[in-house]
Design goal:
It is a single chain. Helix content is 27%, strand content 25%. By secondary structure, it is an alpha+beta fold. The chain folds into three domains: 57 residues; 81 residues, no CATH class; 158 residues, L,D-transpeptidase catalytic domain-like, CATH 2.40.440. The strands form eight sheets. It has an eight-stranded mixed sheet with strand order 7-6-5-20-11-16-17-19. Strands 1-4 form a two-stranded antiparallel sheet. A hairpin with a 7-residue loop joins strand 16 and strand 17. Helix 4 runs antiparallel to helix 7. It is globular and about 60 Å long. The N and C termini lie far apart (125 Å).
């Protein structure tokens, strides 16, 4: 009796097969099975390829910019896809630099998985700090360029891009900033910035005069010597107005060391609190760097214009500061030396 056709071949009669017949049936059946399996696999693959786009279209929370096999950075899981770079749409000048940067922080802070700050954004794009430092009047003069109004200088050119850091980069930058502190040694006329125990910068400064004087701001006789102690940075004045502390009158221009007159620059002032007291003892630039290395100010710590930008971006709010009066120091070669006692304290 004949058997009906089965899936993979025919059996003509129910009888024992010879070895040659058996091998012939096995080889033919194997080829048929492999051919059928390949067709099924090919059809399945085509079906899957046509199914993936429809599945993606049905996933409302999946950013269309990314496919399942791409590596998605942590902040791309937020509802809005965040650009890694921000293109500057128009020239940004010193005069509106802070308002522009503040607008970026306000816009992107809620879209990134970390607290976005101006300092963090600047250190993700360190060329910004270099560009701001190069608006220094005396640096520009060294390049044969006279700058009357620093506020009109372009610092963020149109078409340039700013990097918005990923969470790992942002965490590294913030950790680094959290470990910085400022050291000022009055008789040495030196301000240093440290990261833990590593010195990053050393800048020349001027300090308060060794005398008392009437200042209209306090309406009293004031000791002009720079105060010592430990404290922190508690505030900034990003667009300062300039007043004569003696008579209280506002002024708008300054005479430079080269006897030329310019408008006053826009460079941030840092406000300090020392031993819990606010003396009004600021860290700010001077337009007359010839006074650096002298007891010349009304108590504030004066710096070069370029150095003031670097200090500002190394001193987020809360940065510790130590102002001391140490006469015995070591020079750059490690040799002990004794400084001049400018305040006659020892």
């Amino acid at each position: 009796m004949d058997c009906p056709r089965n899936t993979f071949g025919y059996l003509n009669k129910i009888r024992p097969l010879s070895r040659m017949e058996s091998n012939r049936h096995i080889n033919r059946n194997t080829k048929l099975e492999l051919t059928l399996l390949m067709k099924i696999t090919l059809l399945s693959s085509i079906s899957i390829l046509f199914t993936i786009p429809s599945l993606l279209a049905q996933t409302p929370n999946f950013p269309e910019k990314y496919l399942p096999w791409e590596t998605v950075e942590p902040h791309s899981q937020i509802k809005s896809v965040i650009p890694k770079k921000i293109t500057i749409s128009k020239d940004v000048r010193v005069g509106n630099y802070f308002s522009y940067i503040d607008s970026l922080v306000s816009r992107y802070d809620s879209l990134v998985p970390y607290p976005l700050t101006e300092h963090l954004l600047a250190w993700a794009n360190p060329w910004i700090i270099d560009t701001l430092a190069n608006t220094d009047y005396y640096r520009m003069k060294a390049r044969d360029s006279f700058v009357y109004d620093q506020k009109k200088m372009v610092v963020l050119p149109k078409g340039n891009q700013l990097l918005l850091p990923d969470s790992i980069t942002a965490s590294r930058i913030q950790y680094d900033l959290n470990h910085r502190w400022i050291d000022v040694n009055i008789p040495e006329f030196k301000l240093r910035i440290y990261r833990d125990s590593v010195m990053l910068y050393a800048f020349p400064v001027r300090v308060g005069q060794n005398k008392k004087r009437y200042l209209s701001f306090g309406d009293r006789i004031t000791d002009l010597r720079t105060k010592t102690g430990r404290g922190k940075i508690i505030g900034y004045v990003k667009n300062p107005d300039y007043y004569n502390p003696v008579d209280g009158k506002r002024y708008y221009v300054t005479r430079r060391d080269d006897e030329r007159t310019t408008l006053l620059p826009q460079i941030p002032f840092l406000d300090t609190e020392i031993d819990g007291i606010r003396y009004g003892q600021l860290i700010h630039p001077t337009t007359n760097p010839e006074t650096l290395g002298k007891a010349y100010s009304n108590g504030c710590i004066g710096t070069k214009e370029s150095d003031a930008w670097i200090i500002y971006y190394n001193a987020p709010l809360g940065t510790p500061i130590h102002i001391r009066y140490d006469l015995n120091v070591k020079d750059e070669y490690g040799q002990e030396q004794r400084l001049k006692d400018i305040y006659g304290q020892r």
